[in-house]
Amino acid sequence: MSERFDRNIKAVYATSVLLGLAYGLAIAVVALFLDDIGYTKQEIGGLAAWFAGGIVLGSLPVGRLARRFGARAVLISSLLGYTVTVTLLPLAASSYWTLVGVRMADGIFSVGVWVGFETLLLQHATKANKGMVMSLYSIAIAFGYVAGPASAGFFSQVMDLSQVFFISGGVALVATLVATFALRPAAAVEHEVEAASKAGKNWDLLWKIKTSCLATYSYGYFQASIVLFLPLYLSQKGFADEKIVVIPAFFAVGMFVFSTFAGKLSDRFGHLLIMRWLAVIGIPAVIAVAFLDSYALIAACGFLTGASLATISPVSLALQGHIVDKADYAQANGIYNAFYALGMLIGPVVTAVLFEQFSGAVMIYHLAGLWAFFVVFTLFFAADDPRVATRRAVLTSQSIQI
C-alpha cells in the first residue's frame, strides 16, 4: 500500500473509518429514536428530506470552495461542523423546526466531507487504479458502518437512544483531529489544479457524468429510504429493536467484502459495465425482503444488497474520474453529490407515502423498480464509459477500412 498510495490517500482512509463509525452509530438509531419520541413516519421522512435539502444547497458551493481553498480545508471544516450537528440532534428533537435546522446543517456539512474525501482521492489516484482507490475508500467507510450499528445494538440496551448521538459526536471529533494532523496541508497537486483550472460549465459536466449521477441518485434514494423505513417494516414483522439495528451491519459487511473485487473488475473490464451487473445482482435481493420472515434470510439479503448495490457508488466515482479533467474534479463531485442528495430528498418522501398508504411490500417493490430503470439507462448510454467509447471508435475505424 505504501508503494501504491501516498500519505494523503492513507490519511483519508483513516479518517473515513472513524467517520463511518460516527455515521453508523447515528444512522442505526435515528429512525427508532424519532419514532420513540412520537414522530410519525411522514415526519421522519420529511426530516430526511430536510437533511437532503441541505446537501442540495451545499453541493455546488462546496465544490467551488474546494476549488478555491483546497479539498483539505473544506474537509476539516466540514468534519467539525458535522461533529456539532450530530451532537445537537437529540437536544433539538423536542422542537420539529429546530430539528429541521439541525438536519439541514447536517446535510451541508456532510456534503462538504464527501466532496473533500472524493476530490482528494481522485486527485492523488492514478488513472490505472481509480476504481481500486475509490473501492478501498468505500471499504474504510463500510468498516465504520459495520462497527457503528453493531455498537449501537449494544448501546441501545444499556442507555437511552439519545445518548448514542453524543458518542457519535465524540467519534466524529476524533476524525476531525486525525484529518487535521495527518493530511498534508496545501498539497501541491491542489494548487496546480486550481492554477490550471478553467471552470467547466455545470450543464456540460452534468452531461458527461450523467450515468454516474443517476447511479448516485439511485443509491441516495435507496439508502435514505431503507435506513428510515426498513427498521419500521421489520418492526411490523415482529423483530426486536436490538436485532433490527444490526441489519445495517450486514449491508456494510457485504460492501466491505466485495467492494475491492468490484473495483478491480471495473478497472479491468470497464466501470459502467460492472455498475450495470451489480444492479442486476442486487435487484432480486431487494425484492426478496418483501417475502421473507426469517431474520437470517433477511440478514443474508442485506449482505447481498451491500455486496452489489452499495459497491456501485465507488465505481461510479472512479468512472467520473476518467470522464472529467482533473481540474474539474471538485466541481464534478459537487454535482455528483447534489444528485445523491436529490435521491435522499425524494426517496424518503415517496417511500413514506407508499409505506403508509399501501404496505411495506409495495415500498420494497418500488425500490427494486428504481434499480431496474438504472440498468436500462446504462444500456442506452453505455458509451459514457471511455473504455466502451474507445472500443466502438476502433471497431468503426476497422469497418471503414474494410
Give helix % range.
over 70%
How much is the radius of gyration in Å? 20 Å
Can you count the beta strands?
A: 0
CATH C-level category: Mainly Alpha
Oligomer: single chain
Q: Count of helices?
A: 17
CATH architecture: Up-down Bundle
Q: Please describe the biggest sheet, giving its number of strands, its sense, and whether it closes into a barrel.
A: none
Distance between the termini: 47 Å
Full CATH superfamily name: MFS general substrate transporter like domains
β-strand amount = under 5%
Order of helices and strands: HHHHHHHHHHHHHHHHH
Shape: globular
CATH domain fold name = Growth Hormone, Chain: A
In short:
The protein is mainly α and 402 residues long. The protein has helices at residues 7-36, 41-69, 71-92, 96-124, 130-158, 161-182, 188-196, 202-208, 210-236, 241-244, 247-269, 271-288, 295-308, 312-323, 329-357, 360-380, 386-401. Helix 12 (271-288) runs antiparallel to helix 14 (312-323) and helix 15 runs antiparallel to helix 16 (360-380).
